[in-house]
Design brief:
By secondary structure, the protein is an alpha+beta fold. The protein has 13 helices and 16 strands. It has three domains: 2-192, no CATH class; 284-369, Helix Hairpins; 385-537, 2-Layer Sandwich (Heat Shock Protein 90). The longest helix has 83 residues, at 2-84. The structure holds adenosine-5'-diphosphate.
Length: 546
Amino acid sequence: MSSRGDGSRTALIVALLLVSLGATILLAWQAQYAVSLHRAAAESVVRDYAALAADEFIRRSAAKVGYEGYYPLIGALTRGLEATGDLGKSIPKPEELGPEDERLRAALPLVKRYFTSLPGSEALSFEGAAPPIEMRSWLSAQLKRPRDDTGPYSVLHGSVADEPVTAVVREWTDPSREKRAAAGFEVNLEALGAYLTPAIEERSLLPPSLGKGEVTNDAISVSLIDHGGVERLRSGPRDFPEFSVEASFGDAYGGVLEGSRVRLSVDPAAAPRLVIGGLPPSPLPMLGGLLLLTAAVVAAAIREIRRERRLQRLRTDFVANVSHELRTPLAQIRMFAETLLLGRVRSEEEAKRSLRIIDREVRRLSHLVENVLQFSRREDAVALNSLSWEPAPLAPRVEETIEMFQPLVADTGTRIVARLEPEAEAAFDPDALRQVLLNLLDNAAKYGPRRQEILVGIESSPGATRLFVEDQGPGIPEAERERVFDRFYRLPREGASPTAGTGIGLSVVRDLVTRHGGRTYVEAASTGGSRFVVELPAPRFEEPRG
Ligand code: ADP
């Protein structure tokens, strides 16, 4: 009944522990989810800032290429044309028109080569060496195409021999001859990167109001790709794909950079300056550790509960075993005492035998009671203090105890042989020593065969004195040699044997010996049985005072 109650209580505790583990898992999941949301929001902010920087890049480079680049160039050309008035002559180059114009000089790297097409003429003439035939035919074809734009210039994009090309052209019609003429230049796309770099580097692409102005272009990776897919500019650190945005120059600015794209990303290391708290680190390692810890605690608690239950069961068995052990000698005492009382003995000899049996059973009983008392006192510090240990020779005590034990095995034919070193000394409480030896002798007699020889010996070596008891019984399997000293532990084979026991004898032995600073162990005896050894520290030599 109570074990059923214990069982359901254990199940309840285990269930509660598992519920707490489940709750921890749920909380960990929640935390992970919250952090992932937070991270996604922070990443999106960083990407928005990258988009902002990309817009600024587009604005700045379009302005540089347009207002400071091809506008003044084409303007100077136009002025030159108007100045000469005669379109039949060659067109002056911009640098000839305004050599003192700083802006114009700065724009010159954008020009690859100048070209003109005279009114009425199909032919193009180039300044310096003529470009390859493919370029020439592309340009003529472009110029022939009717254009509806009425602006001061046109920008032509195309691809020649798989290379992107761009040209800026000013066209007009000669009013007198009503013939079209054109002049312009091919844009040096290779020089675009070097031309734009100073404008990009002059200050951060991010407005100073963001990140307290501390996020410089060193944290921004930029790549400019022209209308033909060729990268013309790269600056800043390597690309950070997870924070990368791509923006097109689109129609807003048109001109030379029409069809170009910019790919820009912000270094996540700059995130703490841009977003409060930066990018939260992944909580997985911490949560994983916490979960493992909780699981380990739950497992340890379940193991502890199971051990407690096992101990509880052992205690119940122990009470049953003690009662059983008490019952047998009591029954014997009662039977032989009654025989004597009722005068049923036939001879003097028989009366003596009855008294011997009563004496033996009383000794057994008192021994058992001694063990139980000692066992229940084991955690009692007062009991420890009550032990008095004076260094003394062991042999007389051992002989006395053997003598005391002898009657218990008198009718089994067991012989107890003592091999004692008379001068071996140890500091040991006499009563404790008697109980230790009685327990070992009792086990030797109990588990060994009838008519065996039990050897009790004392050996001394420097630093230690050993007391041992050897029997001719079945011995103890090597794997069990430590466990037999555990409280309530009995070898599994005892389950099927009629030999009664409580499982506390050896634990009392170990407890008493340990309190004296000694140790206990069991090994195989040369006779095949067990050899239990009690090793005591040799008494220290004390300097004579004075
Ligand atoms: P108990 O003898 O009351 O069962 P002990 O603590 O004295 O308890 O012994 C524990 C177990 O060790 C015994 O149940 C027995 O299985 C084993 N044991 C002890 N002494 C011997 C021995 N001399 N020979 C064989 N087995 C022994």
